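Module 6 notes. Inverse folding takes a fixed backbone as the condition and produces residue identities as the prediction. Think of it as a translation problem where the source language is geometry and the target language is the twenty amino acids. Below is one complete input and output pair. Work through it position by position during the lab.
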């Protein structure tokens, strides 16, 4: 075989690899058994999720990179979730002399934090990844975002913040990673002032979400790093609503909105999955969804 033919064959195989992985995943298109109660603490050793993936070499600096970076797909969520969050805050929070103070829990490299700071909010980003926080701090300084600050910490320990010290809290692409939802949501309730707003986006636990986000996006197409998600950790809207009500929030799932990805054919020419910007899809809650609740 000539060198040119060999190169062509290898290139063809590279193109077919996602299809091959999908075919191998076909027997596993049925979701695994669920945990008995998603609203009870779950032993981390029982899950396949890897929350340390954001510290790995080649991942930690890819928050705002091109579509070749492993975190590139997260940027596509912003066109749907940021306007939704802004509408919730602007409609529900009282305006005064000072800008409302927000907390972004699990902020990563500041994808949402930056946008909320640019919209005029004073915001603290909190993340357990030291590399992500260092990256976000450097970007904030480089872009002159003086109203955005970042700290290393996790969702289970908000003791550094006083009671009722924030007007709004954001958890974007975080809830489905948490092993102890009651503890995390309880912390949110404590740091929120009465009338404060908790805004979030997460993933529903359905057969469709398993096929699209695990079998396809994670295993076959590798849109996200391996073990980013564990389907059993996804949260149904009715579960989240119940937990929020138990924790002192006023919530109406009628305000929840789905998110769906657009299609960007240009990415095909770069050898990438043709995912485009996500958009709001009212009533389509079977995969990604957005929501907000108000602290009583």
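Target side of the pair, the amino acids:
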């Amino acid at each position: 075989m000539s060198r040119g033919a060999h190169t062509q064959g290898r290139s063809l195989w590279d193109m077919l690899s996602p299809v091959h992985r999908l075919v191998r995943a076909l027997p596993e298109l049925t979701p695994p058994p669920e945990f008995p109660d998603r609203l009870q603490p779950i032993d981390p050793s029982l899950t396949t999720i890897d929350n340390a993936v954001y510290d790995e070499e080649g991942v930690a600096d890819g928050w705002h990179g091109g579509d070749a970076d492993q975190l590139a797909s997260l940027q596509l969520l912003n066109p749907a979730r940021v306007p939704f969050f802004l509408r919730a805050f602007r409609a529900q929070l009282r305006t005064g002399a000072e800008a409302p103070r927000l907390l972004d829990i699990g902020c990563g490299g500041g994808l949402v934090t930056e946008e909320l700071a640019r919209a005029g909010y004073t915001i603290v980003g909190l993340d357990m990844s030291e590399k992500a926080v260092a990256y976000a701090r450097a970007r904030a300084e480089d872009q002159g975002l003086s109203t955005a600050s970042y700290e290393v910490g996790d969702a289970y320990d908000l003791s550094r913040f006083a009671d009722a010290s924030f007007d709004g809290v954001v958890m974007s692409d975080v809830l489905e990673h948490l092993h102890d939802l009651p503890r995390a949501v309880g912390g949110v309730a404590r740091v929120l002032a009465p009338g404060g707003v908790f805004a979030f986006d997460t993933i529903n636990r359905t057969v469709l979400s398993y096929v699209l986000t695990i079998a396809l996006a994670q295993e076959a197409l590798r849109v996200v790093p391996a073990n980013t998600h564990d389907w059993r950790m996804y949260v149904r809207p009715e579960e989240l609503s119940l937990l929020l009500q138990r924790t002192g929030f006023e919530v109406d799932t009628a305000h929840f909105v789905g998110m769906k990805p657009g299609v960007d054919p240009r990415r095909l020419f770069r050898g990438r999955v043709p995912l485009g910007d996500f958009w709001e899809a009212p009533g389509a809650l079977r995969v990604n969804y957005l929501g907000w609740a108000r602290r009583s």
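Reference fact for the lab report: Residues 176 and 234 are 5 Å apart (CA to CA).
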